[in-house]
Automatic annotation (TrEMBL):
Upper taxonomic lineage: Eukaryota, Fungi, Dikarya, Basidiomycota, Agaricomycotina
Polar residues: compositionally biased ranges: 32-52
Biological process per Gene Ontology, one example term: methylation
Provenance organism: Thelephora terrestris
Pfam families to which the protein is assigned, alphabetical: Methyltransf_2
Region (Disordered): 32-56, 569-597
Domain O-methyltransferase C-terminal, residue spans: 278-430
Name of this chain's protein: S-adenosyl-L-methionine-dependent methyltransferase
Length: 597
């Protein structure tokens, strides 16, 4: 039973964290920054021991903190402050504590209603994004526009629009300036594409070109991902998936869209051109997964790599991550691999935003299916950002194994993904395990609850779209090991962020996995007539293939399994799918040991 002192402790935590934010803000002001102050290694003042003069400064300087009222201003010092690692930590404590406090003080019925009818919020967000009302409201300014005029421009029913905007305003997304008059605020304008409404209206397919990808991300999340989520119950509770798809990767998405295909193949289908384009831009928007700064950026010592080192961005999308790295580390070369249509979109995006590195040949795109043998055999790094979470375990093993087969002893594998924290303390002692993200004796959930909810939203998104998941550290470590990669380091920036960079080095491949790989590869060769149908774009000459896998063929258990797997694989590929049948999920080959944390 909680006591008032528990509630007051949470309340005090919020106050302390706010003090920390304010102190950092003051210490970052050039006029008041004291060179003799207790500065930490990252250049900010210590959170724990404010000097007397700092406290005086706090009282004198008006804090320019972002209010909800004005539009989002990415250049305001206050928004920059919110990306400061120490501030990110403090704001997480505030969100975690307020979430926990609300759950404690609110009548359970209402919290349960939030949880069970919260689906209206994404529906309304979809309407907001797809109707481009945010762009109309930006053009109108802070005075706002009556729903009659808004609806006339957006071509929709004014009353329905009004109710949607009011629900959003009630969640601090947009504001009702006066009855039925709405304007943007900091949160609604965050999804502003920045484009002219009439231009978007005349060519909606180009809405996301050249943007930061946030509107695209909202569109994607509230369209195909949200619709798929609505089928979660049918798919899992009624165990209904097998009737609708023949693929191992079958997910509620297959029910929602009446397709048997895997999500990425479906994106390539006729009629989904806008969704495919939007997906590419939405990946640019996923920079927001990173808690202040960039984990891709800080999650590895890129500067230490030798001149001309080759980074292979596997499933690199339109190359947003590589672009950030290429600009910061001009001494590196990049090969961005993805599916052919995505590669085409990527080349267009780079020609627009960073043509010089393409022209010089230091950055190349390559159409390559990561389930087939990896053609690059001298990579310094295989970088996979938000790739493994798209695939069920055995598919991840296959992807990583192709990379293991192509690795040199010095090659590093970097998996950038959410590392799903337990909702309790992590006492596994695994490399990179964080026991708790909460301050000692704070009473907060060890994973900071609501403050890290995005990791869990995404986890379920992966379930419904790909029959996959975000993985715990143990799950990631095991799956890497199943393909011959040993995790040696986990980097989280700032400390305790659930979005991390997992660094692994080559180790021996378990015999069963090696065998499966060789069989799968052989089937592909037999079916396709040639190992890989890769296409190179740009002039850089990439290295040729060779194979290094060793197997213990004498092992009789392995030989028995060979027979079984041969059957499984030939059935899989004779159906033309990317994987096996649903039934095979249950008869999972023992290559990717299912992680039991
Ligand atoms: C979640 S996105 C991540 C994109 C990129 N790494 C990023 O962080 O922006 C997954 C990417 O995997 C690509 N992909 C899916 N199946 C693939 C395959 N079989 N071979 C190569 N790439 C694939 C998709 O086209 C998509 O660009």
């Amino acid at each position: 039973m909680a006591t008032f002192s528990n509630l007051r402790a949470l309340h005090a935590l919020i106050g302390d964290a706010l003090d920390d934010v304010e102190r950092i803000f003051v210490s970052c002001q050039p006029s008041v920054h004291s060179p003799t102050g207790s500065e930490s290694s990252d250049g900010t003042q210590s959170l724990l021991s404010p000097s007397a003069s700092e406290d005086e400064e706090l009282n004198r300087i008006p804090l320019d903190f972002p209010s909800l009222d004005g539009p989002y201003d990415p250049h305001s010092p206050a928004e920059a402050l919110l990306s400061h690692p120490a501030v990110v930590h403090a704001t997480k404590l505030i969100v975690s504590a307020t979430g926990q406090l609300a759950a404690m003080v609110q009548r359970p019925f209402l919290t349960i209603c939030d949880a069970t009818m919260g689906y209206h919020l994404p529906s309304c967000m979809r309407f907001l994004e797809a109707s481009h009302v945010v762009e109309i409201m930006r053009e109108t300014g802070p005075a706002g526009l009556h729903i009659r005029e808004l609806a006339a421009r957006a071509d929709c029913d004014p009353n329905k629009l009004g109710h949607i905007l009011r629900l959003l305003a009630t969640h601090h997304i947009g504001t009702e300036v006066s009855p039925n008059v709405f304007a943007n605020n900091r949160l609604s304008s965050f999804i502003d594409s920045g484009k002219d409404f009439n231009v978007i209206k005349s060519n909606p397919a180009d809405k996301y070109e050249g943007t930061n990808g946030i509107a695209a991300y909202v569109g994607m999340c509230t369209d195909e991902l949200f619709k798929s989520s609505a089928y979660l119950t049918d798919a899992y509770l009624l165990n209904d998936i097998s009737k609708h798809s023949t693929l191992t990767s079958a997910a509620p998405f297959n029910l929602a869209f009446g397709t048997k295909g895997q999500f990425f193949n479906w994106l390539d289908e006729e009629g989904n051109e806008m969704r495919l384009k939007r997906f590419g831009h939405a990946m640019t928007g996923t920079a927001g997964y990173e808690d202040g700064g960039s984990i891709t950026f800080q999650g590895f010592d890129w500067g230490a790599l030798g001149k001309g080192s080759l980074i292979v961005d596997v499933g690199g999308g339109i190359g947003s991550t590589s672009m950030t790295l290429a600009k910061a580390f001009p001494h590196l070369r990049f090969c961005i691999q993805d599916r052919p249509k995505t590669v085409e979109l990527g080349i267009l995006a780079w020609k627009e935003r960073c043509p010089e590195r393409l022209d010089s040949g230091e950055v190349v795109f390559q159409a390559h299916d990561f389930f087939t043998p990896q053609p690059i055999r001298n990579a310094a790094v295989f970088l996979l950002r938000v790739i493994t979470h798209d695939w069920p375990d055995e598919f991840v093993t296959r992807i990583l194994l192709q990379l293991r087969n192509a690795a040199t002893p010095q090659t590093k594998l970097i998996l950038v993904d959410y590392v799903l924290p337990f909702a309790c303390e992590d006492r596994t002692g695994d490399i990179g395990a964080v026991r708790t993200m909460a301050p000692p004796s704070s009473g907060l959930l060890p994973n900071l609850g609501k403050a890290n909810a995005n990791a869990f939203w995404l986890d379920m998104t992966m379930h419904v779209t790909f029959n996959s998941k975000e993985r715990t550290l143990r799950e990631m470590t095991d799956i890497a090991l199943s393909a011959g990669w040993q995790v040696v380091e986990v980097i989280r920036k700032p400390e305790g962020s659930p979005f991390g960079s997992i660094i692994a080095v080559p180790t021996s491949v378990p015999p069963s996995t090696a065998l499966l790989s060789s069989l799968a590869e052989q089937e592909i060769i037999e079916r396709a007539g040639s190992p890989v149908g890769d296409t190179f774009y740009s002039r850089t000459q990439l290295p040729s293939r060779g194979t290094t896998m060793e197997m213990n063929q004498s092992d009789s258990a392995v030989r028995r399994m060979t027979k079984r797997l041969r059957k499984t694989i030939s059935r899989t590929f004779s159906r033309g799918g990317q994987g096996g049948e649903v039934g095979e999920e249950k008869r999972k080959p023992p290559m990717a040991k299912s992680a039991s944390d």
